[in-house]
Design a protein that fits this description.
Layout: E1 5-11, E2 17-24, E3 27-31, E4 35-43, E5 70-77, H1 80-83, H2 85-96, E6 103-104, E7 114-115, E8 118-126, E9 128-132, E10 137-141, E11 145-149, E12 154-156, E13 163-171
Antiparallel strand pairs: 1-2, 3-4, 4-5, 5-13, 6-7, 8-11, 8-13, 9-10, 9-12
Length: 178
């Protein structure tokens, strides 16, 4: 399983900056043999308090931000052929049931179609993945980015190697589904 290194710096009581944490990010959930989702950092409110020495990623895994919060994380999407669409959707649903519910809709399009009450920024680091929406699909490769504004979507890895992405989820107003 690929590991993501996480380096966190901050300012101490003496006013000097230093490295507070430097190690592999914790994996919060695995998917198949090669997939995982993990937390790099989270915030609980806006504006963010940047003081303290608590590791905000070394907490029970919650893939969705709470009210007024953010999640900075990573996803390693396994090839869908490795675990199957239905099993992947079940993993996603189990993980999404914390703090903020993921809404699974348009399961006819794909069992993993979902939306959340978040604004999401995604960056594809390695590999490629298809982003499915209700009406279309887009092939994304390393270096591509996505801004998801509470829209229904699914990530589908049609290759035979994992796809690695980094994401930021920001609590947002609820988008009422049609």
């Amino acid at each position: 399983m690929k590991q993501i290194r996480r380096c966190v710096i901050g300012t101490g009581p003496d006013g000097q900056s230093s490295t507070q944490f430097d190690h592999d990010a914790p994996i919060g959930m695995t998917m198949g043999k090669t997939g995982a989702v993990g937390l790099l950092w989270k915030t609980l409110e806006m504006p963010v308090n940047t003081t303290g020495d608590t590791d905000q990623a070394n907490v029970p895994f919650q893939p969705m931000p709470g009210p007024g919060g953010t999640i900075f994380g990573f996803a390693i999407f396994p090839p869908e052929s490795e675990i199957g669409a239905e099993a992947l959707a079940q993993d996603m649903k189990a993980a999404g049931g914390t703090q903020q519910e993921a809404h699974f809709t348009n399961r006819e399009r794909h069992p993993g179609m979902h939306r959340t009450n978040t604004l999401d920024y995604n960056i594809i680091l390695e590999g490629e993945i298809w982003l499915l929406t209700d009406k279309d699909e887009v092939l994304l490769k390393a270096g591509n980015t996505v801004v998801c504004r509470g829209a229904n979507h699914h990530w589908q890895n049609r290759t035979n190697v994992p796809c690695v992405s980094i994401f930021v989820l920001i609590d947002a107003l609820s988008l009422e589904a049609p």
